[in-house]
């Protein structure tokens, strides 16, 4: 996508608390080392010192300009024209230098923010050390591996034999890593999503169901840390819309230069986008050639609003960003949200991995869990979220294990992560079906999401958590492989029979 990165559009974006880094550089670097990263504290501190110098220079110049302007009035009042003249010259010089000083300040701030935006969250002390998935630690497991009187098949062999899972036609429509589900398997996918939502929105889970947008702006993706580092894993979109004549007026500034004044419900958005040239919402640009006379101006120049949006890789993005740029009351926390949505991932770097079947798709369905909490609540909320996700697999009677990810295997925004890995008999291995993470204030800083304490005396960053509750496509795979029968049919788990209209077996039709 064209334009400035989200990190560069905000003056004070605290991906990490730079004050903490200044005060505890060794602790910060130890956290990075646990993730297998090089030290960064001294580089960040140097960038911050540069930024503070530029801020001081700009503020000093502005303060001197204000003081000098006041002195001019005093000099004129005292009829000291010579002094007033000298002060006027100084004010003119300051007025000319201040924009450059402010530009230097913005550039220094952008450099720091861009550097901070590329650095992952700090792992909690309790997170086990390690480099990759081989160092993850099993937390507990549920159930046992089933015994079969036959060699269990993988889901794609089962689905294709049933005539209800079609990868070939999907490839004709969309390319690799897509699937067409039909008949019983299509209904099973729908049933699983509905079942999960019903569990999570009822007692004792009590998540609030949300139907969010599937397209989001740069700022939302930046807030949850998909941008800028993981840009290549996302699907961008772009739309263009000609602004209607009744939404703007044209003003001639001078020959060859014009200005637009916008009106109507979108006036504020359009004006900010036009004057900024680029915002996290849209970009307004012109077609045609500006002319210096009123006659024919509307026909010659048309304002266009260009909107850059991203298909969501997970409902974590819109759900978490519901509190962006806001201050909520502590009484509203914890805030628990859930959604069942399609998700879209480019799977960059996944060439050769899971090329057959539904394990790694560009489009898949997932039920997401998001919690917004106070710092004091987040640790307990993480355990609670894990148990909510586990409940889905327990009710489906699927064997799984929970592992605590080591520091080197955690996601970019996470402080601590539990993965739930379901057993797939056809693959004869565990595969991730849910990942529950606590992010602390990492995402909240990127979103400027805060809460006001009950006493009203303090405003603090919220803590955010997210988890799959669970991935519908992988649950479909797990049900198919776990409940397969020797004749190739699939028994429907008891918990899903009512969602399947009483159907107890998925058979070839």
SS-derived structural category: alpha+beta
Low-confidence stretches: 1-13, 277-299
Percent of residues in β-strands: 15-25%
Distance between the termini: 46 Å
Q: Roughly what percent helix?
A: 25-40%
Q: Tally the helices: what do you get?
A: 14
Main sheet record = 8 strands, mixed
Strand order of the largest sheet: 1-14-15-16-19-13-12-4
> What is the molecular shape?
elongated
Rg from alpha-carbon coordinates: 28 Å
Mean pLDDT: 88
Total number of strands: 21
Q: Which key phrases capture this entry?
A:
alpha+beta; elongated; 509 residues; disordered N terminus; 36% helix; 14 helices; 8-stranded mixed β-sheet; 4-stranded antiparallel β-sheet
What report would you give on this structure?
The structure is a single chain. Helices cover 36% and strands 23% of the residues. It is α+β, with helices and mostly antiparallel strands and 509 residues long. The chain has an eight-stranded mixed β-sheet. The longest helix is centred in the first third of the chain and has 37 residues, at 41-77. The radius of gyration is 28 Å and the shape is elongated.
Short description:
This protein has 509 residues and is an alpha+beta fold.
SSE topology:
Layout: H1 18-23, H2 25-34, H3 41-77, H4 81-117, E1 137-142, H5 155-162, E2 165-166, H6 167-174, E3 180-181, H7 183-201, E4 208-209, E5 215-216, H8 218-223, E6 235-242, E7 248-254, E8 257-262, H9 267-276, E9 283-287, H10 297-300, E10 302-311, H11 316-320, E11 326-329, E12 335-344, E13 363-373, H12 378-395, E14 400-404, E15 416-424, E16 429-438, H13 442-447, E17 449-452, E18 459-461, E19 463-471, H14 472-482, E20 490-491, E21 505-506
Parallel strand pairs: 4-12, 11-17
Antiparallel strand pairs: 1-14, 2-3, 5-10, 6-10, 7-8, 9-10, 12-13, 13-19, 14-15, 15-16, 16-19, 17-18, 20-21
Helix pairs in contact: 3-4, 7-14
């Amino acid at each position: 996508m064209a334009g400035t990165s989200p990190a560069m559009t905000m003056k004070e974006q605290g991906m990490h608390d730079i004050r903490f880094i200044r005060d505890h550089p060794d602790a910060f670097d130890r956290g990075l080392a646990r993730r297998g990263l090089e030290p960064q504290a001294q580089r960040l501190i140097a960038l911050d010192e540069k930024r503070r110098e530029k801020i001081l220079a700009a503020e000093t110049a502005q303060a001197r300009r204000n003081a000098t302007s006041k002195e001019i009035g005093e000099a004129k009042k005292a009829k000291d024209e010579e002094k007033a003249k000298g002060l006027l010259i100084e004010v003119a010089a300051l007025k000319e230098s201040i924009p450059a000083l402010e530009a230097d300040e913005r550039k220094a701030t952008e450099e720091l923010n861009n550097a901070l935006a590329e650095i992952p969250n700090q792992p909690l002390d309790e997170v086990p050390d390690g480099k990759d998935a081989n160092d993850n630690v099993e937390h507990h497991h549920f159930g046992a591996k089933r015994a079969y009187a036959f060699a269990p098949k993988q889901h794609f062999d089962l689905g294709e034999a049933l005539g209800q899972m079609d990868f070939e036609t999907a490839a004709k429509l969309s390319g690799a890593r897509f699937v067409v589900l039909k008949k019983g398997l299509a209904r099973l996918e729908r049933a699983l999503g509905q079942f999960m939502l019903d569990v999570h929105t009822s007692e004792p889970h009590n998540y609030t169901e949300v139907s969010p947008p599937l397209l989001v702006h740069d700022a939302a993706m930046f807030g949850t840390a998909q941008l800028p580092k993981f840009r290549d894993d996302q699907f961008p979109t772009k739309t263009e819309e000609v602004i209607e004549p009744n939404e703007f007026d044209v003003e001639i500034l001078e020959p060859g230069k014009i200005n637009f004044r916008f009106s109507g419900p979108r006036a504020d958005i359009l004006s900010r986008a036009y004057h900024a040239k680029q915002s996290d919402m849209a970009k307004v640009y012109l077609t045609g050639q500006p002319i210096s006379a009123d006659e024919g101006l509307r026909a010659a120049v048309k304002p266009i609003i260009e909107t850059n949006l991203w298909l969501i890789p997970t409902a974590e993005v819109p759900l978490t960003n519901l509190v962006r740029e806001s201050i909520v009351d502590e009484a509203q926390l914890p805030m628990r949200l859930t959604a069942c949505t399609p998700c879209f991932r480019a799977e960059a770097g996944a060439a050769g991995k899971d090329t057959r079947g539904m394990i790694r798709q560009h489009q898949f369905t997932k039920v997401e869990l998001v919690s917004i909490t106070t710092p004091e609540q987040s640790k307990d909320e993480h355990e609670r979220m894990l148990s909510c996700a586990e409940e889905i697999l327990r009710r489906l009677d699927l064997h799984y294990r929970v592992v605590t990810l080591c520091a080197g295997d955690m996601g970019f925004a996470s402080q601590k992560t539990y993965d739930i890995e379901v057993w797939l008999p056809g693959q004869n291995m565990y595969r991730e079906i849910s990942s529950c993470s606590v992010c602390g204030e990492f995402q909240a800083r990127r979103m400027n999401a805060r809460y006001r304490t009950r006493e009203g005396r303090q405003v603090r960053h919220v803590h955010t958590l997210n988890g799959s509750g669970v991935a519908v496509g992988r649950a479909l795979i797990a049900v198919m492989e776990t409940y397969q029968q020797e004749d190739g049919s699939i028994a429907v788990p008891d918990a899903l029979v009512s969602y399947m209209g009483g159907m107890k077996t998925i058979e070839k039709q």
